[in-house]
Every structure is written in structure tokens, then in C-alpha cells.
Amino acid sequence: MEIPANPPVVTLEPRQVLRGDFAVLRVDQPLPGEPQLHVGGLSEQPKLFLLDRQPTALIGFPAAAPLGAYPVRLTWDGGEWEGSIEVVYKEFTVDRLEVTEEQEEVYYDPRQAEQWERLYRLRSTSEPEPLWRDVFRPPLDGELRVTTYFGEIRVVNGVETGRHSGMDFGAPTGTPIYAPARGKVILAEEFIVSGRTIVIDHGLNLFTAYYHCEEIHVAPGDWVEAGQRIGLVGSTGFSTGPHLHWTATVGNTPVDPWPLTQGRVADLFTRSKE
Ligand SMILES: [Zn+2]
Q: Which Pfam families match (predicted)?
């Protein structure tokens, strides 16, 4: 007699997210065929990874995502699962910047398009397992001085230009920047707007980025450990003073990096080694 298999249990957490946050989908067992995941209403679709052969995905929601329920559909050979995630209201303040004409030229420099496109392509693939080992640490030591929060509506010289893609920490030039978690450096070079820029792949489609560095101490292809110095705070690129701009992205969708320091996704590493 054939023992019937337990139906797969799909967990999706949290079921309510703020704009600019992300959810985690996991399945408790391998699924037959090639499982496919689709989230309605998202322009960037989540990537499905097999963690111990069990499908796992991070689902990122942009800061400007419309509110409401987003249908989530997982299909596999001979089965499917449907659920939804509700994106709920989060208020974002307005960040007004007054800059010189020279700085404005940097901000709108058309040559930046090629750089962002290249970064976009680099973040289109990710290591297939979580490379972090624990809760993410903040990228700077000591007391943090947040000067701009994630998602703030940015107005440059009176013109609304989009959402602030990360958190800004004010710090003196030369302050060491540390990798928040283990990962692989995928970009380390000078960009027009973000200045000297470092981007780390932490696996499972989760990336962090560091803008406006005075110095870069890593190179593409380097593996970094949590707490390893990767560069120094500066004011390179489009910047009005020394600070670290810290971004987290799920693929190419910026999400608030702060929840990473509060233990979000920390358990995924443990789970992958169970
Ligand atoms: Zn910033």
C-alpha cells in the first residue's frame, strides 16, 4: 500500500507588509517539476530558490507600491497554492534638498543610465543560498545618526524626483563602513550619482549597497564577512555632506534595510543547514 504524501505546507510571512518591505515564502518539502511563483501587481517578479530542495523566495514591495492585496500563486507539477499579501499604509515624509546648479547637473547626468543598467544586470542573478550567518549588523559602529529614512519622497530644487532608496547615516569622512553580513562583492567602483559605490550579494536575491564612499577597500568577486571593513564614509557623487547611504534590495527592488538589523531573514540561514 502506498503511503499518501503529506500535502505541502506553504508559509508566507508576514501576510501584511508596509510599502517598501518584503515577505518570505517557504515550502516545507520539495515540489515535483519546476515550481513557478507569480505575484500579481509586481513589475519585478520574485525569484524562487531551492533551499534544501524546498522552494523559498523573498518578495519585495516598492516604497511606492499601491496599497491593497497582491495575489500570490505557486504552481508545480500536479498542484498549486494561492494566497495573498496585503500592502498597508506607511507614511513617508518629504525630503527637500536645495543644491547648487553644479550638483544638479551631476544628479541629472545622462551618462549615469549606463551605470544603473549595468548594476541592474548584476542584481539579476544571486547566489542560490543565504550567505549570511546571523542578524545583519548596522554598517557603521556606534550611535547611528539617521539623516534621511528609506522611502522618503525626494524633492530636489522643488522637483519631485522619486523615493529615497535607502537610509542615510551622517558620519564624518573616513568613518569605517562594515559589511553587515557575509556576502560576495558584485560592484566596487565610482558612479556619477552614488559616488564610490559598493554592492554586496548576500544570496537568495538579497543585496546591500553603500554609496558616496571616500574609499573602497574591496573589489568585485571578493567574499566579505560580517564586520569586515569594506570602505570609508565620504561625500562622493551627488551628496551634500559626508554620509553613508545604505540600501537593501530584493533583486532590483529597494526595500527598507533596517528590518534586516532586527532579525528579519536571520532564521533562513539556520533553516538551510537543518
Ligand atoms: Zn541617501
A: Peptidase_M23 (PF01551)
